[in-house]
Design goal:
With 380 residues, this protein is of the alpha/beta class. The protein has 2 domains: 3-200, P-loop containing nucleotide triphosphate hydrolases (Rossmann fold, 3-Layer(aba) Sandwich); 207-373, Rossmann fold, CATH 3.40.50. 45% of the residues lie in helices and 17% in strands. The protein has helices at 3-13, 21-38, 49-53, 75-85, 96-113, 119-127, 143-159, 186-195, 207-211, 224-238, 275-279, 285-294, 311-326, 351-366, 370-373; strands at residues 64-68, 91-95, 132-136, 163-168, 196-200, 218-219, 251-256, 259-263, 265-267, 270-274, 297-303, 306-307, 330-335, 343-344. It has a 5-stranded parallel β-sheet. The longest helix has 18 residues, at 21-38.
Length: 380
């Protein structure tokens, strides 16, 4: 039995996971893939000079896996187990959005060289010393990604011999649905269905909602009780031990244009920000869109009373909420007051500001609903 299956069955036996046929089947398939890589009979992906002269081709890489299903069904948990227990050094796990930002940066550098097609050298650079590339939350939201993904992943799989393991909220045929120039993306869907085993994960238990059971998402007023509730939500969502809170990892999020955004706490698709850092600094829609695409849950602490006196901060907050809402990101917040009271009208012609903020209030209220919480990240 593989290390993954040992860990998985232990979680079920301990009651942390509930019996789920699709989840068990996915764990078993991931364990088989582990065995393929770890087995002493696994063949190297290169051939010697004599082999090349005789026309021999490298052994194909093990077949990859595409896990798709609703939010909270254990996709990221299985990916964590797979990566943590895979006993080879040539592995990498990365959030899909962060990976595509890296890809675009490498493409820009290659294009500066004006040396031809940039895709092959970028694929070679990404595949260096790598056998397994594992992604969380494959989702395609823009034509720039869609236009290059078929050729890039064909090169990674068929030329570089990298095995892809990924999770997504969508079945392959629904990726980039109704997107601009989607016809250029269709070969990528064909590639997934040809080169990866597509496994559903839509069991009856939404573990993310279970973990938030009994905890509200909007906490007011700001104070020790609200902070404790937000803190509890973070540890429930990430399975991180509260006693080790001082060591929660942070991150530097690349928001494009050579700029970055510091994320004080960043773990398993959950980010924690202060309002001051997120909306008190000069940030724009592209920054908030990057946050929304990178994290399935965002915790914002210390939201003050907004209004005309904090005009810039209020405008940024509106833009932030739009980005989170449109990407179905879960929001947990500590704030000065309830959403419907958050905008303080100053009178004397400030009615327009209040009117514009009403849409944000409506979205904040909807984002607390069970229907919204049940949606997958990026789901229409």
């Amino acid at each position: 039995m593989s290390g993954l299956l040992d860990r998985y069955h232990a979680l079920v036996a301990a009651g942390e996971l509930r019996p789920d046929a699709e989840q068990a089947a996915a764990a078993a398939r991931l364990a088989v893939l582990q065995d393929e890589f770890e087995s002493s009979s696994a063949q190297p992906q290169t051939v010697g000079l004599l082999g090349r002269l005789l026309g021999r081709k490298p052994s194909p890489p093990p077949r990859g896996i595409y896990l798709w299903g609703g939010v909270g069904r254990g996709k990221s948990m299985l990916m964590d187990l797979f990566h943590a227990t895979l006993d080879i050094p040539e592995k990498r796990r990365v959030h899909f959005h962060a990976f595509m930002l890296e890809v675009h940066a490498l493409l820009r550098e290659e294009r500066k060289k004006e040396s031809g097609d940039p895709i092959p050298p970028v694929a070679a650079a990404l595949a260096r010393d790598l056998k397994v590339l594992a992604f969380d939350e494959m989702v395609v939201n823009n034509s720039a990604d869609a236009m290059i993904m078929s050729r890039l992943f064909t090169a990674l799989i068929q030329t570089e011999g990298v095995t892809i393991v990924t999770t997504s909220n969508r079945r392959p045929g629904e990726l980039y649905k109704d997107g601009l120039n989607r016809e250029h993306f269709l070969p990528f869907i064909d590639l997934i269905e040809r080169e990866l085993d597509v496994l559903p994960l839509n069991g009856p238990t939404d573990y993310r909602l279970d973990r938030l059971g009994g905890i509200e998402t909007w906490h007011a007023p700001v104070g020790p009780e609200a902070t404790a509730q937000a803190r509890e939500a973070f540890f429930r969502l990430t399975d991180y031990p509260p006693e080790d809170s001082a060591n929660v990892p942070s991150a530097e999020l690349d928001v494009g244009g050579g700029r970055s955004l510091f994320v004080p706490k960043s773990l398993k698709g959950v980010a924690v920000f202060s309002f001051k850092r997120l909306c008190g600094e000069a940030r724009g829609a592209s920054d908030y869109l990057t946050v929304a695409r990178t994290y399935h849950t965002v915790i914002v602490v210390g939201i003050p009373q907004l209004g005309a006196e904090l005009r810039n901060e209020t405008a940024r907050f509106v833009t932030l909420i739009d980005a989170l809402y449109e990407n179905r990101v879960k929001l947990i917040a500590t704030a000065a007051t309830r959403p419907e009271q958050l905008y303080a009208s100053a009178g004397g012609g400030d009615d327009n500001g209040r009117f514009e903020f009403d849409r944000t209030v409506s979205r904040l209220m909807e984002m607390q609903s069970e229907a919204y919480m049940a949606l997958g990240h990026g789901e229409d």
